[in-house]
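Predict the holo structure. Ligand: fe (ii) ion.
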Amino acid sequence: MVHKNRVGVTTSLEHCHKEVLKKSQQLLQFLVNLRYEGKVSLGRNIKSIAEILKFFQKTLLPHMDLDERILFPFVATHIPRLSPAIKIFKIDHREFKSNLRSFIVLFEQLKNAKTENRRFEIIEQLKEKGTYLMCLLRHHVRAESEQIHKAADEDLHLVEKNFILREIKKVCKKHDPLRN
Ligand SMILES: [Fe+2]
Ligand SMILES: [Fe+2]
């Protein structure tokens, strides 16, 4: 039984959003480092970026999946005024996933680049794609927290919140998507 005053329905999802904002800021910084620190720090910067991409794949993608399978349908049914916003959030998810995929392909090419010129070219493209991707993600996460999480915490009844929490727990037990 969840105590009314102790747990917001979206606490664990909010925790993930905060991590996402932190990691997205770090990724932007590592992309700048990649551009200006040159060959000496190439290995270190590649490793740092790879860790953030792993976080996106292991934590953020299952989180988006959880949103779409549990939170969104439930919120759309119980708070119908949020249905249009939910449609947009789903489009954001698609856009993010497809851009993340092409970013990863490019990143793999960087690891295998043989010449300085080729590396430079790829780094420029990574910076451009990464900036767009992180802008999309940061905007999305803030809007989702502001609209969906806030409304779910404020407008749903305790019994509805408990239902969502139970469903989230079931999924978390399977593959712990909300942790690092
Ligand atoms: Fe989310
Ligand atoms: Fe989302």
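The pocket of fe (ii) ion (ligand 1) is lined by residues 13, 17, 63, 67, 144 (CB under 6 Å). The chain has one domain: 11-175.
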